[in-house]
Design brief:
Helices cover 61% and strands 11% of the residues. The protein has four helices and four strands, in the order H-E-E-H-E-E-H-H. A two-stranded antiparallel ribbon has the order 1-2. Strands 3-4 form a two-stranded antiparallel sheet. A hairpin with an 8-residue loop joins strand 3 and strand 4. The two termini are 26 Å apart.
Length: 150
């Protein structure tokens, strides 16, 4: 049985605030100097843990197809700096959030990184990448569901 886009977005609408809350609550831990490779500010974990572009593309395309005309929305990239609206994509938001969080889960299951390093990585990615995706998606979903209920 296939889940309808309204039901899918309603489930994501319940999950996103919890993910955001957990990310904001992550402790500010130090990154170890052990086996991790640091490039710039970013720790490069095992390539086995990172979702490759083909896998990401499959998830993105599946979500885009499921969401149809609900995928695209208007947004301002940085509301403190920008005035022009650009297009956002719920499929892109959700696929990026999934990729950023899954990497740490895979590393944890494989025992390939210290818990503190995974927390450090998740916190960094929340503030530098997936946090904005989560906030944008939450707002877009709010209006999609509100308008569907009207």
């Amino acid at each position: 049985m296939s889940i309808q886009k309204t039901d899918l977005l309603a489930q994501i609408y319940q999950i996103l605030p919890k993910l955001i809350d957990e990310a904001i609550s992550l402790p500010d831990v130090e990154l170890s100097d052990s086996d991790d490779r640091v490039v710039g500010n970013i720790t490069v974990f095992s390539a086995k843990a990172r979702q490759n572009e083909k896998e990401w593309g499959q998830l993105y395309n599946s979500l885009k197809e499921k969401l149809g005309d609900w995928d695209s929305y208007h947004q301002v990239f940085d509301p403190t700096e920008d005035n022009e609206a650009i297009f956002g994509s719920l499929a892109d938001d959700i696929a990026d959030i999934y990729r950023d969080l899954k990497e740490g889960l895979v590393l944890s299951e494989m025992h390939q990184a210290r818990p503190e390093d995974i927390i450090w990585h998740w916190r960094l990615l929340f503030y530098s990448h997936w946090g904005k995706h989560a906030m944008d998606a939450l707002l877009a979903i709010h209006f999609r569901l509100q308008n569907a209920a009207s």
